[in-house]
């Protein structure tokens, strides 16, 4: 299967060692990796917000004209009332980069769910027409489980799409996400994880990974894909060349088994 038949995005946060530090300061220029990412077979980027927002002007301009489209803008703006400036900044970058989708997370305070949804509705008005709202539902948010997500997001049915982490967590949990949300599941984050850390390549969990792909096929999943993380992430010392090579292996596994 070729890249044209099965496009897959590369997540720039995969190469970012500061991804989970308090300041989350970018440590490299994404533009320096354009050619290597494209040569590895990826067709687009899921761009970590800080790789754009906190970059210098030359790097920002390089992102504007890069050879790989920014298919997903990976934002960490917040949806409490205090987060308005961050939401506006994220929306500005979505428009500037012509991103087709924007990934977001809601907060973790269940008593503020209505506040989050109100601000999410307002934020959606700042985004380009047709831009997909991709909700990443996981631990630490009010959308941690499929049941919680179904209850909280009910008022926005038809307006918010979901991301699933198809190769982490329990198989039956993935099945529940797919059964509860059906066609609203439109994006897969690829990151191999058998039980707990460390993350691994899909080939290291080949049987389980093939089972997850079978679930997606059975659900008639026809959405988009990003290799978000892979084996070697958060294992010191990280080696960017090796991480990209592992991500390329995961890409080839997907194309061979999808």
Outline the structure in words.
- The protein has 258 residues and is α/β, with parallel strands linked by helices.
- It has a single domain (9-257), classed as TIM Barrel (Alpha-Beta Barrel), CATH 3.20.20.
- The chain has nine helices and eight strands.
- The protein has helices at residues 34-39, 49-53, 57-64, 84-97, 113-124, 146-153, 171-181, 206-218, 240-257, and strands spanning 9-11, 44-48, 70-74, 101-104, 132-136, 161-165, 185-190, 224-227.
- The chain has an eight-stranded parallel beta barrel.
- The longest helix is centred in the last third of the chain and has 18 residues, at 240-257.
- The N and C termini lie close together (9 Å).
- The mean pLDDT is 96.
Search tags:
258 residues, alpha/beta, TIM Barrel, 8-stranded parallel beta barrel, 8 strands, 37% helix
Which SSEs are present, and which pair or pack?
Elements (H helix, E strand, L loop, with lengths): L8 E3 L22 H6 L4 E5 H5 L3 H8 L5 E5 L9 H14 L3 E4 L8 H12 L7 E5 L9 H8 L7 E5 L5 H11 L3 E6 L15 H13 L5 E4 L12 H18 L1
Parallel strand pairs: 1-2, 1-8, 2-3, 3-4, 4-5, 5-6, 6-7, 7-8
Q: Helix segment count?
A: 9
* Overall average residue pLDDT: 96
| Helix-and-strand structural type | alpha/beta
Distance between the termini: 9 Å
Radius of gyration in whole Å, from Cα?
A: 17 Å
Query: What is the CATH topology?
Result: TIM Barrel
Number of domains: 1
Major β-sheet strand ordering: 1-2-3-4-5-6-7-8
Uncertain ranges: none
How big a fraction of the residues is strand?
Answer: 5-15%
Q: Going by CATH, what is the homologous superfamily? A: Divalent-metal-dependent TIM barrel enzymes
Query: Got a strand count?
Result: 8
The first-level CATH class is given as: Alpha Beta
Helix content: 25-40%
H/E element sequence: EHEHHEHEHEHEHEHEH
Let me know the largest β-sheet.
8 strands, parallel, barrel
């Amino acid at each position: 299967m070729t890249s044209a038949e099965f496009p897959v995005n590369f997540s720039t946060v995969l190469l970012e060692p500061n991804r989970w530090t308090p300041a989350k300061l970018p440590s490299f220029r994404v533009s320096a990796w354009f050619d290597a990412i494209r040569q590895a077979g990826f067709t687009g980027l899921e761009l970590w917000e800080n790789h754009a927002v906190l970059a210098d002007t030359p790097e920002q301009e390089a992102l504007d004209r890069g050879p790989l489209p920014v298919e997903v803008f990976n934002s960490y703006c917040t949806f409490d009332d205090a987060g308005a400036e961050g939401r506006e900044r994220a929306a500005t970058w979505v428009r500037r980069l012509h991103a087709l989708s924007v990934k977001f997370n809601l907060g973790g305070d269940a008593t503020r769910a209505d506040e989050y949804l109100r601000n999410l509705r307002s934020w959606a008005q700042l985004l380009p027409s047709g831009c997909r709202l991709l909700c990443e539902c996981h631990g630490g948010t009010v959308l941690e489980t499929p049941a919680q997500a179904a209850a909280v997001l009910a008022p926005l049915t038809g307006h918010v799409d979901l991301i699933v982490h198809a190769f982490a967590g329990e198989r039956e949990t993935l099945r529940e996400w797919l059964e509860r949300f059906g066609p609203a599941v439109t994006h897969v984050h690829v990151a191999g994880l058998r039980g707990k850390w460390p993350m691994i390549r899909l080939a290291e969990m080949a049987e389980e990974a093939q089972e997850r792909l079978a679930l997606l096929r059975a659900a008639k999943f026809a959405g988009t894909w990003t290799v978000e993380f892979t084996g070697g992430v958060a294992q010191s010392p990280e080696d960017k060349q090796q991480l990209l090579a592992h991500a390329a292996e995961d890409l080839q596994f997907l194309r061979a088994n999808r």
